[in-house]
Amino acid sequence: MKFITLLLTCTVIFFTSCRNEKNSVGQSNYFADTDTAAVKTGGVKMVSINTPAGKFKVWTKRFGNNPKIKVLLLHGGPGSTHEYFESFESFLPKEGIEFIYYDQLGSYLSDKPTDTSLWQTERFVEEVEQVRQALHLDSTNFYLLGHSWGGILAMEYALKYQRNLKGLIISNMMSSCPAYAAYNKNVLQKQMDPKVVDSILMFERENKTADPQYMNLLMNNYYNEHVCRVNPLPEPVSRMFGHTNSQVYTIMQGPSEFGISGRLALWDRTADLYKIKVPTLVIRGMHDTMDPDFMKMMSEKLGNGQLATCPNGSHCSMWDDQPNYFKGLVGFLKK
Q: Residues 261, 200: contact at Cβ < 8 Å?
């Protein structure tokens, strides 16, 4: 009887170890230095990209090593930075998940050309593909996480290059900018003080969005409720706002998150979601600038969609509903 008990115990331990080995990477391997260069860069790699306007470099930084799970992070904006993803460092390393920061062309640590013809979704898609190739990511390990504008970019990338993906995460973004604008106007604005809404719209009509009073109105009446509900703002989020490229942001998004009026205003890929067949997680915040019901619908229209909900989350759910955001994300990546 003792022998049988011992045998059963060893069997359980063996299979548990195999299962854990399949889903995780040991800490020594995760933090192993795989950089063979003579001068170590702490995971930073400047990637050369070709564009119609010439050659430029974009900044990337790898965190950890996992041959099966490599998550490339696409920040929002457009023109924002990787900095607000720094909360990921508190959750993904302990799970053995490798992730890669990346400032898109025009953003913070990357080159900042002023040729406005570069700020087109199609060109950004080709940029992501060049970054993928330079970092040696492929369908055996490549997960693409796009937040906000990065979600638009991730969907567009998947529609053209999903053969290169292992999985996709659309974080806090709708597949239709007209629907996003309608939700803002017909739902969120009606929850606000009408006088505040009128003042915000007046500043936008008169092209006075650089006026500090305009940003104060947005921050105190809209951003703190629907963009990031942590008060005061987490330092990386505040730092990101300070480093945002306003030219790129205004051309593509418009002057603020209070609706959309730039080159993305008519973008809509809802009818094409079924074409994305790779496993895809949609993450929604119930207090988001984006319609949570619409994002649930997206998860159902995708060819292989799943949904993670952040009941306390806004647009930056990775900050104001971390337990639910990272539980959903880690669970998806490990599945």
A: no
Tokens of 320: 């104001």
Q: Is residue 258 domain-resident?
A: no
In a domain, 135, yes or no: yes
CATH number of the domain encompassing residue 114: 3.40.50.1820
What residues act catalytically?
148, 288, 315
| Tens-binned pLDDT, residue by residue, of the chain (335 aa) | 444 444 444 444 444 444 444 456 777 799 888 888 889 899 999 999 999 999 999 999 999 999 999 999 999 999 999 999 999 999 999 999 999 999 999 999 999 999 999 999 999 999 999 999 999 999 999 999 999 999 999 999 999 999 999 999 999 999 999 999 999 999 999 999 999 999 999 999 998 988 999 999 999 999 999 999 999 999 999 999 999 999 999 999 998 888 899 999 999 999 999 999 999 999 999 999 999 999 999 999 999 999 999 999 999 999 999 999 999 999 999 99
Task: Flag whether 57 is in a domain.
Answer: yes
Smallest CA-to-CA distance from 174 within 151, 191, 197, 157 is with 151
